[in-house]
C-alpha cells in the first residue's frame, strides 16, 4: 500500500495541456463543421451561392460597361488639355467637359459602391440565417429566407456601420503611428524593412480585433441586438475562443491573398486580351470566401453559446454574468433556435 501513496493521477497533469491543445486547434473543427453545414442543406446553401455570384456578376458587368465610355472620353480630353492655350475659350470648354465627365464617373462609381454594399450586407444576412437554420436542423425555402433576411436587415446594418467606424478608427490610428516613424527614419530603411514589419504586425492585430467584429455581425442577425449591444454580446461570447476566431481570420486572409496573387499571375498570361474575366473571377472568388467565413463564424457563434451554457450548468448559476450569454438567450424566431 505504501508504494502507491506518492503516485498522483496522470489526468491532473494531462488535462490542462489537452485543453490548451484543444483550444489551439479548435478552429479546425469549426472549419470541418462549416463544410458539413453546406452539405447538410445543399439546396438552400447552393441557392444562396448562385444568387450571390449572379447578382455580383451583374453589378460588376453593368458598372464596367457603364463607366468605360466616360473614362475613355475623360482620358481623351485630358490628353488634349495640354495642347490648348490656357485662358482661351477652347481651354475653358474642355476643362468644363472634363469636370462633367469626372462628376459622372464619380457618380456612377458611387452608385455601384452603394448597390454592391447593400447586396453584400443583404446576402451576408441571408447566409448567416441559412447557416443558423441549417446548424439547428431546421429548414427554410429560399423565398422565406430572403424575406426574413430583408426584414432583419436593420440590425446588421447598424452593427456594420459601427464596425466600419471601428475599421476607420484603426486605420487612422495606424496612419498617425506610421507617419512619425517615416519622418524619423530614413525612407530607404522605412520602406524596405521596418514598414513591412509594422504592416504585418498591424494586419495581425486587426485580424485579432476583427474576431469580435465578425461575431457581432452574426449576433445582430440571429438575436435581437445591434450596434454596441451586439459588439458587447460578441465580446462576452468569444471569451476563451478568441484564438479560434483569430486563426480563422488568418486562414481566410491568407487564402484571399493567395487567390488574388494567383489570379493576377494567371490573368497576365491566360486572359491578357479580356478586361472583364479576371475582375469577375476575382469578385466571385472573394464572395465565396466571404460566404464560407460567415458560415464558419455562425458555427463559432453556436459553439461559444454551447461552451458558456456548459459553464452555467457547472457553476449552478452562481456567476450572474453567464446568464447573459447562455444558450437560453432567445433568437429572432423559433426557426433559428436550436
Automatic annotation (TrEMBL):
Q: Per UniProt, which keywords does this protein have?
A: Membrane, Transmembrane, Transmembrane helix
Q: Which regions span the lipid bilayer?
A: 44-67, 111-136, 157-185, 191-222, 243-264, 276-302
- Which PANTHER family does the record match to this protein? EXPRESSED PROTEIN-RELATED, OS08G0107100 PROTEIN-RELATED
Q: What is this protein called?
A: Transmembrane protein
The organism of origin for this protein: Rubus argutus
From the broadest rank down, the organism's phylogenetic lineage runs:
Eukaryota, Viridiplantae, Streptophyta, Embryophyta, Tracheophyta
Amino acid at each position: 500500500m505504501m508504494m502507491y501513496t506518492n503516485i498522483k493521477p496522470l489526468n491532473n497533469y494531462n488535462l490542462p495541456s489537452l485543453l490548451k491543445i484543444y483550444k489551439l486547434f479548435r478552429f479546425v473543427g469549426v472549419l470541418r463543421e462549416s463544410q458539413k453545414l453546406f452539405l447538410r442543406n445543399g439546396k438552400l446553401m447552393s441557392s444562396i451561392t448562385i444568387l450571390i455570384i449572379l447578382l455580383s456578376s451583374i453589378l460588376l458587368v453593368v458598372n464596367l460597361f457603364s463607366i468605360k465610355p466616360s473614362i475613355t472620353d475623360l482620358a481623351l480630353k485630358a490628353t488634349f488639355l495640354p495642347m490648348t492655350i490656357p485662358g482661351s475659350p477652347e481651354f475653358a470648354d474642355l476643362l468644363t467637359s472634363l469636370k462633367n465627365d469626372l462628376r459622372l464617373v464619380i457618380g456612377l462609381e458611387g452608385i455601384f459602391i452603394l448597390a454592391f454594399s447593400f447586396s453584400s450586407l443583404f446576402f451576408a444576412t441571408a447566409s448567416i440565417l441559412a447557416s443558423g437554420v441549417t446548424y439547428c436542423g431546421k429548414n427554410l425555402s429560399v423565398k422565406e429566407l430572403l424575406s426574413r433576411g430583408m426584414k432583419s436587415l436593420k440590425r446588421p446594418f447598424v452593427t456594420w456601420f459601427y464596425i466600419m467606424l471601428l475599421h476607420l478608427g484603426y486605420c487612422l490610428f495606424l496612419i498617425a503611428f506610421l507617419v512619425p516613424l517615416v519622418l524619423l527614419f530614413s525612407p530607404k530603411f522605412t520602406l524596405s524593412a521596418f514598414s513591412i514589419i509594422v504592416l504585418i504586425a498591424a494586419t495581425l492585430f486587426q485580424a485579432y480585433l476583427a474576431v469580435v467584429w465578425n461575431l457581432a455581425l452574426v449576433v445582430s442577425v440571429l438575436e435581437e441586438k445591434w450596434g454596441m449591444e451586439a459588439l458587447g454580446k460578441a465580446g462576452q461570447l468569444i471569451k476563451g475562443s478568441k484564438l479560434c476566431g483569430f486563426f480563422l481570420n488568418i486562414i481566410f486572409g491568407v487564402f484571399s491573398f493567395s487567390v488574388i496573387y494567383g489570379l493576377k499571375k494567371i490573368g497576365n498570361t491566360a486572359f491578357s486580351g479580356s478586361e472583364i474575366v479576371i475582375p469577375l473571377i476575382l469578385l466571385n472568388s472573394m464572395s465565396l470566401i466571404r460566404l464560407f467565413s460567415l458560415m464558419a463564424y455562425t458555427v463559432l457563434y453556436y459553439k461559444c453559446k454551447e461552451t458558456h451554457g456548459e459553464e452555467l450548468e457547472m457553476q449552478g448559476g452562481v456567476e450572474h454574468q453567464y446568464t447573459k450569454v447562455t444558450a437560453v438567450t432567445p433568437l429572432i424566431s423559433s426557426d433559428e433556435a436550436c
